[in-house]
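Page 47, continued from p. 46.
Same chain as before, 268 aa.
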Amino acid sequence: MAILTISRQYGSGGRQVGLLVAERLGCELVDKSTLHRDLLARGEVWARLDMEVDEVKPDLWERHDWRYHAWLANLESAIWDHAEGARTVIVGRGSNYILAEAPICLRARVEAPLAMRVERIMAREGIVERARAEELVIEEDRQRAGYVRSNYGRGWDEAVAYDVSLDTAAQTIAEVAARLAGLLEEKDRLATPADRLRLAGLALAARLKARIASERDLLLPTLKVRHAPSGIEVEAVIHNPGERDRIERLAKEICGEHPVRLLLHRRI
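Result:
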């Protein structure tokens, strides 16, 4: 049940590392295409939006658009659903921050010098002009950093956000993958039944948040849904008693008999 998240600089080979780890351990690789299919299953609106905003720094309009926040809540919920299942490798999407509370999670950063990344992108994308390739690499890194900063208030490259950082210039991509596979297997051996219960609770909280956030006319910009020892807690500022009733119904729909505590405050 161990989880590996991979944050990667553009052209560092991070996705290839993730693919090799998944193949080596026979586990699931969760990447952009996987999550896009998940979002499509939740609704075409989220899949369409995903094509526009995934791993791109949101503009001012998007940061205040309910659809963006609902898309993000659904994306996070999909990532938690994968984490709750079998051993999995998740590439990008700020997954190291999304799964910050997840037990038995290995958070890895894959990097490489700019010159090497530019060469790889030139070869991969068929770009002839080095300057153009360098601009592409720098811009892609800037967008990924902006996406993480805007959505999670943290630096994309913060060393403390990762358990291990690996350089694919110092080691081959295969060697990096082998090391991460070994570390993930060590994590897996430490998993306990309590860890599985906690993962299930965290995934359930994310599922409920996504369901509430997806209600177009239930605008709750302060919405927080978290897993606590006593159950799921929903905190928000509401406008009227009717909104409380709707949240209660949604909580029942998603959580069933699982305890849910509503910490709802009326707007004055």
